[in-house]
Amino acid sequence: MKIAILPGDGIGPEIIAQAVKVLNALGEPFELETAPVGGAGYAQHGHPLPEATLALAKAADAVLFGAVGDYRYDNLERALRPEQAILGLRKHLGLFANFRPAVLYPELANASTLKPEVVAGLDILIIRELTGDIYFGQPRGMRSCPDGPFQGQREGYDTMRYAEGEIRRIAHVAFQAAQKRDKRLTSVDKANVLETFQFWRDIMTEVGKDYPDVTLDHMYVDNAAMQLVRAPKKFDVMVTGNMFGDILSDCAAQLTGSIGMLPSASLDANNKGLYEPSHGSAPDIAGKGIANPLATILSAAMLLRFSLNRAEQADRIDAAVKAVLAQGLRTADIYEAGTRRVGTEEMGDAVVKALA
Ligand code: NAI
Ligand code: MG
Questions:
Q1: Those residues with Cβ within 8 angstroms of residue 223's Cβ, 6 or more apart along the chain or in another chain
Q2: Which residue among 244, 261, 278 closes a domain?
Q3: 122 and 90 part of one domain
Q4: pTM of the model
Q5: Most exposed among 54, 148, 168, 273, judged by the fewest C-beta atoms under 10 Å?
């Protein structure tokens, strides 16, 4: 079983090193092969997604991805910026379903910025569609504003779009995920304003007829944002488009105490997938050895569960993460008085130790 390891830039290499330690400690015959991506890809091969890296990702059974987005590359043309690597991988691997489980570990009840009673016991799953929406729609670009009070001025524009089949396949994924949980699905849209998301709502309702055991409700995205911080435990599974999902999942991340705790899986139609922490490359703390590696380690657990059929090993990792939190070990982002502050490596070592 081959796992492609793509550390990326910023804190990527630091956090991936901890997940690799954990994978190696499982005693399974995994073949781990590393390749540069993002800023590291650009620095070594002049491209954020070098051909050899893409070939490795395609050949592997699953991909473990760190993060990309080093500010040093911000001034490059868009096609060469680090973020293009993750967009390119999603596209070339056909990854359309992004799973972000937001779970609050009881030990972190006070790490959240929300009141403990609001978040205690939180366990929700956000499913974000990854291939459509305003992120990829054409046409896009700059032009001269065609009408209105700003006519003739420069104007930036993008196109929001969703094809029927694109909505159907994410709907099926979401209903099936809800079937395995509490059987409640909230579809988040903006049907009151956007044609694209009225269509989304209609298709969700239609597909829902195939899943009579799942309760479907619809919510506008602005209300969903409010409910996520007001009463997040009311949700079970949420499904939404690419942009709303991007924003809501960061919001949900904070419910868990820190974005450094939130793993993610991006899957294709056959459960081949790319696994990565939900956060970016955190250039503000890169190289300091203080990044929280747990989201990445938990992403490795998701990889074992979804793509490699190793649920038992995934459970071992989840249990080890719980154990280190119970021991009171905290990276800076989840630190509170009375716990012990540790760095990235020490946290990784503690998880490895807890595995045994
Ligand atoms: P970010 O997620 O990198 O950082 C946001 C804040 O959270 C920062 O204060 C950072 O220090 C903190 N943080 C993030 N991960 C952490 C961890 N593991 N432990 C402790 N603290 C952590 O988001 P930001 O700053 O908006 O973006 C930085 C760069 O990352 C940008 O270039 C962005 O495009 C890129 N990015 C890449 C993603 C990816 O690789 N999939 C996803 C999101 C952003
Ligand atoms: Mg994001």
A1: none
A2: 261
A3: no
A4: 0.91
A5: 148
